[in-house]
């Protein structure tokens, strides 16, 4: 009997004492253990009782399963769908951040130890170290080499795993004329769904099981016991006849070697599986994956026409290594197919999500941001060049990526380049590419970013940092749609949409002769100005909530939230670094916050806490809301003028308003 206790989840505290051979866990109400948690699958997992052991198997659940064993986490998936449960294990089901946790009390299985018989007569034992010597013998035995080649050919050209497993058994029967039955067992890291005729057999030298994944019987064995291995391999063996022996498997795992046993009923102690199958001699070889036994091939002779020889053992050892390689290749092929299918599904999902949720990743409901969204709606499906202006940290690249991924070019590449991060001499090569030998170090041809983004979008960040000579070449690409790589005599046509960003005033740069006027007009087809965070303070709570969800999930550290006094300080702060500074502050708060605790003013950075004293000092004691706000505004204007020695131009820049706007406010308050 197994006892399951729900430690975490909606059913916390419930206890199940179960003796069934099959226990299904999941959201379905008809399950043996019904769990109401929304992130579980309908049939999430299954516990099976097999050979006095309880085995948990993940039923391809959406959010997966893990087993917590002490400090070790065993993740179940395509490579390892199941694990033998031990007493004290905990099942972690569903969402990895907040899983349903189920404690397991499992009775220890009663297993008989392997005891060596002093009178036992084993014909041959070959450890892994003998493989190289065995392979060397083929040079002097061409007939054996030819037989091995013919058998190994049955494995070639097969990519589907089931076909490879079947071919292994067929190859064994082709290689060993005396074999009447062949079976393949694989360990937990290579286990696939067993065939209907397969039986579960044995246990490996770890904590999992070996599973019979393929088995064959020769329906018309060669009566002579020798020859070419004539006879047809049948996928349907004699009814109720086990194809593998637990005793043989245990012998291989105990000795960690390939073995031949004659008159197996006597040599292996009269095992029930051997007696029932009437095995007269058997041969079993491990499939070595380094020092690990990944599987076992077993061949039986159930006639009295002859026993296996040492040469048969050696040939089967060599075939086993080829078989393991074919199995691993097929498993890799299957994983690549599954990954491709999953990737296609994710692409379809993401495309659908983007179509349903326009600009979902851009946080903001303020009037300033709604105006930005309206502009984006008008420009995304055009070829117009978009120039995004704004202070550092306002999210210019996020807007540029939205222009690409919401537009008609979403299927092509979005390529970003920071013009300030690369010296001008290298930036030209990055943008336009070069031919081999164009300059010192150009040892091969290189495609530029314009060619990589052909059909898509190229985002040039900090374009105001680009030198004048490079600006001229960029202008040609914008006007003619063609470029010439460094060192090339030929021009190439490209179809690239340009989006750019700058935190400089490009109009002033043109006046100062630092930016080409003709390029300025080409870039300013559709300018978008992103407001600094201080101009859209109403978006700050939503941004904080977004970053809190991001980092609490990433760090698996839930917090209660931000207290109102702390939120007031966060909203009141000027945020010179804009959204980027806000994100960094929230990340720091999550790191230092207490589990399930609140963010309080004392947790904030020193520069944010300064605002607390200012608000206390200037807070008006009474009056209407308008009077109190005017008093606060008058104080802030006076402080700003004092900080800049009454320089109205610098004061207006600091406050984020125009000089004319500052004069109006000063006149309003008689200052």
Jot down its keywords.
alpha+beta; single chain; eight-stranded antiparallel beta sheet; 671 residues; Rossmann fold; 28 strands; six-stranded antiparallel beta sheet; Beta-Lactamase; Tumour Suppressor Smad4; 5 domains
Question: How would you describe this protein?
Answer:
The chain is an alpha+beta fold and about 675 residues long. The protein folds into five domains: about 1-105, Sandwich (Tumour Suppressor Smad4), CATH 2.60.200.20; about 120-330, GAF domain (Beta-Lactamase); about 365-530, 3-Layer(aba) Sandwich (Rossmann fold); about 535-615, Helicase, Ruva Protein, domain 3; about 625-670, Arc Repressor Mutant, subunit A, CATH 1.10.10. About 40% of the residues lie in helices and about 20% in strands. It has 21 helices and 28 strands. The strands form six sheets. Strands 12, 13, 14, 15, 16, 17, 18 and 19 form an eight-stranded antiparallel β-sheet that branches. Strand 14 (about 200-205) and strand 15 (about 210-220) form a beta hairpin. Helix 2 runs parallel beside helix 7 (about 310-355) and helix 20 (about 650-655) crosses helix 21 (about 660-670). The longest helix is centred in the middle third of the chain and has 47 residues, at about 310-355. Mean pLDDT is about 80; it is low at about 110-120, about 190-210, about 220-245 and about 270-275.
